[in-house]
Each structure stands twice: as structure tokens, then as C-alpha cells.
Amino acid sequence: MLLSCQDSPLFLYINQSIYISEFKKLQAAMDFQSEFSWLELEELHAPTQSFAAVVGQRYCFPNSAQYRLENEILSKSWIITEANGEVVFRVRGKKVDWYKSKRELVDENGKVVVYMEEKPWTIKNVWKAYSPGESEALFTLKSLSAFTCKPKVNIFLASNTAQKKPDYTIEGSFLAKKCLIYFGEELVTEVTREASLKNILITKSIFNVIIHPGVDVAFIFSIIIIMDKIYVHDD
């Protein structure tokens, strides 16, 4: 009796290899969770140092808050909601041309808050973010490598023209499970990715975020969207 294509040993081997690869990604995500201790919201206090607003003072709040960032399948668009499910921001994303990408963070009224653009032809992944209509960047994000799930990312604010020491850094495993955003040595944001096997297979990203008191939330959302573009949805 002839075997169908799907019953052939070669097909079964290839299919099994794909699922083993995806399972290893998911297992790495689960194992990584133990590397950090998750802070409860009620344990968060006022920051030990004041943070300058990056996008705008109206996006800095006195209390910590939880948010959820979720991309639309087969789309570069995102929805950002508060813990109660209320939509507070959206992200519009499209390719400008074949060699660079851009993203736009918009508020609930559809007004552009931050414009993000990839700098082409660089060895490092370099993105710049701008206020609408402005030519001076709000911040510059430099990723030292896009070929690892544990990123080395530095963020330089507009005032840091020398760029010898970053203002913000990102540590952890963005692709797998969790990463932390620091201002100097102070933890300001915790990001966890819902890295289920289903989400990996359909290339869906869901991030749960805790932003600490006084931190510019629009700035943080812009960082997360850029990071997802570099490490997860490099399209």
C-alpha cells in the first residue's frame, strides 16, 4: 500500500522537528521566569529619583499601573489597554519603503503622539522617536544585537548628545518571557510576554506591563513596540 505524503517518514520527521523547535522556545520562556522576582503593585513606592518627561508630562502618573499591549494578527497595528480593558493608545505600523520601517503611537482620539522610525543601513539596530512635526529626536534606541533573545539595548535621550552612557537600559529576555527597563540603576518598568505555543505559531505578541510611578508611559510603550519589531516581528 502506498504511503501518502503526510505519512512518509521524511514528512513526519520535518513536522516533528518544527514542533520540537517551537516547544524549546516555549520551554525557554517558562524557565526564564524564575530569573526575576515579580513585584506586586502595592509594593511599589515613589521613585528614589525624579524622571524627566520624555514624550510629555501628561503621560507621567503618580501611581504605578498595569497595561496590556496586544498586536493584531497579520498586522503591524497594536491595541494598548489599561487593566480595566479601556483602550488608551493604539499603534499604527507600516513600511515606508523596502529598507526601513516606521511605527506611530496614537492616543484614543487617533492623534499621533510619537513617531518612530528605523535608521537604515546600520550594523546595529537604531531607531529614533519624534514628536509629530519635530526634527529633533525624543530618544534614540540602539540594540547591539538582534540575533539573540537576550538583548543589549541602550536608550539615549535628546539631552544626552555625547551618548557615552545610556540614560535607560533594557535587561532580560524580550523574546522569551520577561525584560526589565532601568533608568540608570533604578527599575522603572517590568514587561512580561505571554509566550504560549499558540502565540508563537501565529506570531502574536501580548505583553503585560507594570510601569512604576512617575515614568512617562508613552515613552515606555514606544520602546516596547520598537523592541517587538527588532526581536519578534522583524518584517
From TrEMBL:
Transmembrane parts of this sequence: 206-227
Highest taxon listed in the record's lineage: Eukaryota
Keyword Cell inner membrane tagged: no
Signal peptide feature range: none
Record keyword Membrane present: yes
InterPro entries, A to Z: LOR, LOR_sf, Tubby-like_C
Pfam families, per the entry: LOR
Protein name: Tubby C-terminal domain-containing protein
Biological source species: Physcomitrium patens
Name of the encoding gene: LOC112289348
